[in-house]
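Structure first, sequence second, as always.
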């Protein structure tokens, strides 16, 4: 039921009507929420009051609150829903990291004042500051998710991220020529050189870890998540059902998560010699556990294949440090990372003339893009090598042909 009050005004008739109606109760306290609007006539005042009540019912906020609704508040509201939606811890952390970057630009900016131009200028400034494309992509995705939430709640009428362009660095001819496909994996000779260095200078766990990586094509998170129950010494098979996530590379806060994709869940056979190496590694690990668990109160027996002396799983950062150390000692110049071994394994299988589908199944790829890129490069190289081998084998005949032709 509406009530009306006449008040003095500087208009032609000398007064205005104020309409007062009950709007939706406060969503947090349930308290009564009265809405007031003015008009030159009762009809106009009531129409404005009804419009305000309608908007209030849509998102539970008054027009005044909407004008004071910063991006940071909407982002926090979205994040709470996002976390409850079952996103993986690693993904949640990436979203939080992206929001921190966005907050440096617009945490306190009213959500209604964020325009496509402002969103684009943020991306452009991040690009100019040297942020990687993956970071720009993550920032854009996180902002877009917040805007979509705001749209759903009717805080905004349009999405400022719609139609945005992610800046991309244009590669020079020199960069293209200096970054061929073979720079994403180790050639046969390079792999031999690296593993020889591992044999001579490797620390505890280095040899079994890097040999396994090269001869399995596992992702680093998959390898670090392996437990001895995933290794079948009878059949020579490895089972992949999880990946290791270590927030801030802290071994005490590691979490086992489902693999990257459904295709990542797999089982495959491993080279007999590498299996023997793992068996030796297990025996040595058991001996260290017997010695160490009596000396430390902080012992964690998680049954990990690559556990440290306290039983905790090894984390990504430690592997990266160890690999850098071994690369330096090996003299290899490629800026290799643990992921190189995955690509190296694909090249090894290709050289062994394993078909593309089998390779993809073995490494857990459902998108052929990366596999196909390396597969095509190696097969083209094999064709070229075949021609050179043929020329070398029949060089005497070819030489005679050239002599006759001249």
């Amino acid at each position: 039921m509406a009530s009306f009050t006449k008040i003095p005004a500087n208009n032609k008739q000398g007064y205005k009507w104020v309409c007062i109606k009950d709007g939706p109760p406060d969503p947090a306290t349930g308290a009564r929420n009265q809405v007031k609007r003015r008009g030159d006539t009762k009809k106009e005042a009531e129409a404005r009051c009804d419009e305000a009540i309608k908007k209030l019912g849509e998102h539970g906020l008054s027009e005044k609150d909407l004008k004071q609704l910063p991006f940071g508040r909407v982002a926090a509201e979205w994040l709470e829903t996002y976390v409850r939606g079952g996103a993986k811890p690693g993904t949640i952390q990436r979203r939080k990291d992206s929001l921190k970057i966005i907050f440096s630009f617009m945490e306190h900016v009213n959500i209604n004042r964020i325009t496509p131009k402002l969103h684009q200028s943020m991306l452009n400034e991040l690009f100019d500051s040297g942020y990687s494309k993956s970071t720009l992509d993550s920032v854009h995705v996180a902002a877009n998710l917040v805007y979509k939430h705001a749209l759903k709640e009717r805080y905004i009428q349009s999405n400022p991220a719609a139609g945005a362009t992610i800046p991309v660095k244009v590669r020079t001819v020199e960069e293209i020529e200096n970054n061929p496909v073979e720079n994403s994996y180790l050639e046969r000779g390079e792999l031999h050189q690296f593993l020889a260095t591992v044999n001579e200078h490797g620390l505890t766990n280095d040899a079994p870890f890097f040999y396994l990586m090269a001869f399995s094509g596992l992702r680093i998170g998959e390898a670090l998540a392996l437990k001895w129950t995933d290794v079948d010494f009878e059949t020579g098979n490895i089972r992949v059902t999880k990946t290791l996530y270590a927030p801030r590379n802290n071994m005490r806060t590691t979490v086992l998560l489902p693999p990257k994709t459904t295709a990542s869940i797999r089982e495959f056979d491993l080279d007999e010699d590498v299996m023997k190496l793992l068996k030796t590694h297990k025996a040595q690990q058991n001996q260290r556990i017997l010695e160490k668990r009596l000396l430390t109160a902080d012992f964690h027996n998680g049954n990990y294949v690559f556990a440290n002396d306290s039983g905790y799983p090894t984390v990504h950062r430690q592997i990266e440090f160890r690999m850098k150390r071994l690369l330096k000692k090996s003299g290899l110049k490629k800026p290799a990372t643990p992921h190189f071994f995955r690509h190296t394994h694909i090249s090894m299988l290709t050289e062994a003339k394993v078909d593309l589908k089998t390779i993809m199944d073995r490494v857990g790829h459902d998108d052929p893009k990366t596999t196909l890129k390396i597969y095509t490069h190696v097969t083209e190289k094999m064709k070229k090598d075949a021609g050179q081998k043929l020329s070398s084998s029949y060089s005497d005949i070819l030489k005679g042909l050239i002599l006759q032709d001249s």
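Margin note: The radius of gyration is 32 Å.
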